[in-house]
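In this supplementary section we document a worked example of the pipeline. Step one takes a protein sequence of length 648 as its only input; no multiple sequence alignment statistics are reported here. Step two produces a three-dimensional model, which step three serialises into structure tokens for compact storage. The input and output of this example are shown verbatim.
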Amino acid sequence: MPFVNKQAPHAVSFATLLVTLGIIYGDIGTSPLYVFKAIIGKNPIDPDLVLGGISCVFWTLTIQTTFKYVILTLRADNKGEGGIFSLYALVRRTKTKWLLLPAIIGGSALLADGIITPPISVASAIEGLRVYNDSIPTVPIVIGIITALFLIQQFGTKFVGRFFGPVMMIWFLMLGTLGVAEITQFPSVFKALNPYYAIHLLTQYHHGFWVLGAVFLCTTGAEALYSDLGHCGRQNIRITWGFVKTMLVLNYLGQGAWLMQHQGQMLEDVNPFYAIMPSWWLVPGIVIATAAAIVASQALISGSFTLINEAIRLNFWPKVRIVYPSDLRGQLYVPSVNWLLLAGCIGIVLHFRESSGMEAAYGLAIIITMLSTTLLLMYYLYLRRVSYAVIGLLLVLFLTVELSFLVANLEKFPHGGWLTLIIASMLIGVMWSWYAARKIRNRFVEFIKLKDYLPMLRDLSHDFSIPKYSTHLVYLTSANFPEEIESKVVYSILQRQPKRADIYWFVHVDVLDEPFTMDYKVTELIKGNIFRVDFRLGFRVEPRINLMFRNVVEDMVKNFEVDITSRYESLSRKNMIGDFRFVVMEKFLSYENELSAYEKIIMDIYFFFKRISLSEPRAFGLDTSSVTVEKVPMIVNPIGRLSLRRIT
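The serialised model returned by step three reads:
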């Protein structure tokens, strides 16, 4: 098809396919633990419900996961990276404003619904112990496993990650084997793959349409599949998906075969997943299921870290501390998000206690993410000049499927779906406020022509009547063009406190819509005296400006472009390197503003999060002791002249 992008190469081999199994399929791969239990619910086991449920699951995996995500959406890669924010980065270059809404809403919903993934996966696995003893307290065990999982994040998952692939391989082989063994007892269950049974369930069965809320659980991991594109590559995902889908369908058919042999009965506390296991395999089966649930939870946690990192680079989220615990590309750790997710997961477990309760709340927010992805994807296809007819057909197909799932999932709202929607709404509020505040702040920034002040800066540098402030004085600037500079920077150097330096540096960081670019450009404004350095960094690159700037200066010294030897006579004789001082302009909201109610709320939210987020120096990786932070009052909308009356 004509809209394929070139992505970073990922060689296909047994090793890469095994890694793909471990990274990509944790969420969607553990869905057999709870999907059929949710479909049957408290209803008697009915053939129409069982066969229709299998048919709905199969065609959902075919249309939604296989066609939409594996075949179509994986083509929309951003230099090999995927996910809703990467997709937004691809299409936002057109400056179309409405694209912002599905990006923020989809990203927030993905984070919110993800809080349920670790609890529902681990709880569904651990509840298998009740086969031996109904009174086993599963809640403390689930909380213990989840807590341990979040605690190890700070050390990185390089060692544990080596086992993810083999664990998931064993898991999927177990799913297929158990399914085939049970299918042999009721082979006619294969007729459920006929779409007739899905249509019959949705149109003829009592409350059949609402079963879609449970069916949707089988594909909730499809969005994560796209988000992890950069870790494994398109071809590895497509090849492994054929194997994964086959094993999943076989297991669903096996559970259906077991259910068909128990028509008219109530499930009570029986989980069809464990019911098809031989008694001698229950203990190993529970252990493997728990391991797979941990892999699914780890995938969700890593995905959340990546999502927040992208949101920060796209100016959707306050700057928070990001740690890189290993040398694996793309692996990162966000402490604040880690502990918030842990608190949310424990809260979910304590509130619902049972996986059946979590099933009732799971999926409502994630379908909103899928709808958002559909809108962004259709616009991407439009930019790639795909036929309007094709785009129209795809839009109708996906909206029909996803809006049906959305309506069916609305039934979950009073049963816990409200919780994830509240969390998603809060996240949307944070992202929107941070983005909107940036737009408001941009009205405050005044850029002036730098060439008008270059002679004054040169003269100041040679004015020995003023004490030297630093040998090298470095300012971070938001001016996109080398010819411009913020008026506040010039005011800081020339007027606030004249800052004499031997060499002035202006450093600008441009965050690109590409993921891993690391380029820089040096502009010499006055030979040997004033320089500008522009860094072009991808939205997944940590801005370690202190380290990057040092590398740039070292390269310039090697090329004889600059002399950084100290200008102090006693130190110069010893060839000592001159001192560097960074100056960061940090804004605060001035009282001299006349804001509308909306702008005041936005700016109050912005500065609240700014106080508890990373400072500007730490956000830019300026971990040197030679950093000066200058507070600058932000006057967005100045108050008019006051009606003061002079009296005598």
